[in-house]
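Worked example 4.2. Below are the chains of a multi-component assembly; read each line carefully before continuing.
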Amino acid sequence: MTFRTTTFPLVVAAPAIAGMLLPVASHVDARDAVGRIGTVFAWWSSIVLASLPYVTLGALFASVRELLPQRCARIAALAAIVAPGCDCASAGYASAFARESPALAGFVLVWTSAAGPAALLVTYDALGAHLLLARLAGAFAAATLTAAMWRLDVRSARAPDRRACQQSHGSGSPPLCDRIASALCALAVSASFAVIVMTVFGHNSALSSPVIAAAGGALMSPCSTADAVIARVLVHRSPSQIAFVLAAQTIDIRQLVTLARVFGPRRCALAALAGVAGCAVGALCAT
Amino acid sequence: MSGAQSVVAFAAGVSIASAATGASAVLTAMPSWATLLTGSILASCALAGASQRSRSFAYVACGVCAALWLPTSPPPAPGTVSTRPASTAVRGDLFEALDRLDSAPNAILGSTIAVTGTWTPATRDDLATVSRRVVSCCAADAVDVGFDVRLLRDARVAAGTWVRVTGTVGERVVDGDIRFVLEHSHVRGLEDAAQIAR
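Applying the procedure described above to all two chains together yields the following structure tokens:
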């Protein structure tokens, strides 16, 4: 998907709509409503602003990768896996893997989101060594399952090539600009969903069961550097905490929008299935 | 000039201006220089090869104007104050007390402790709180952690004031969840210490 000019106003309007979701039981106060919309807008802009450096770095990485010979794919994959920072970067560099083998692309994109170095460090600090191992197990399960299913998926094998071609030449703008704008658009969409969920439920809902915790993580899609901290505060049991952090990185809106944008809806659905399985594996390991 | 270049030019304007006004430091955990550097890279991306540079500059200017609307004081964190510890990496007496409560609650329940944090006055439904904010990535990820406070004597302290609260650690059940509360508490404003502690 190349950048679409009409999408941006829509995603900018979404947080304003979320801000208007006033509590039904309370009286409507104009000053309160304006303050509420201001807060929702501040949350939305903070997500987009915080992701900008990572998106830019990711897009620069993707552009450099295109200059390298084809056999450097494994080096690029390794660089993505060990790169420090937030999972937002994957929105910028996902397109660099569009022409690689599906198995490699699937594994790298899921693993870097769910088990990047920064995410692992924060998980160890906030949730401890046992849950760090559970996160690693869940992330490995999700990444290997995604790789296996993408490799076996013959029907959408040709689609990524077409998309990659569109990404390079589709809009007539420099590929780097196109990459950054498309990634920003995907992040703006997920940020809109996140602020709607936060406006309606807040950070104080009781996410007791792993299934509810996973749904919460997927809808809120917090960054990989923040998910463990939020899980410790918001979620009370270890399996639910791991389900929350894994879902927040493997089946969250940001990840799914990125995968659908670059690899198509079919592979996005397969990655989501693998993500659900990864959450289950992680929750079982955390028990 | 394509739509993508317009968006990148706009984002460049927002980045540069938010770093300059301090909005990026308030809204994100990213240092201002990193936001400024990002803005410069985005601006050079948008301007490189642009056939109509004046339009690119116009979009950068629009981004600068949009960034002036961004708040320069922290927005409230989503959700209420949690009485669970958030992370062991952050330091402070309040975090240490919550960590001790999490690891060995019986050792600290019933004892008198003093913690520092931001004051939130009581409402009709909720007790007052003393809390610290943990921002991992951005304002939307922020969580407030601290204690509920039941004052021994009524005190008028403005919301957001940096305070030191001394009280006896107790617990109460709210909606099936255990919350820690400082009972029989005294609150003291710490205006001078605020900058040092933060």
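Take a moment to check your reading of the output against the notes. Chain A touches chain B through 53 residues (CB under 8 Å). Chain A has a mean pLDDT of 82.
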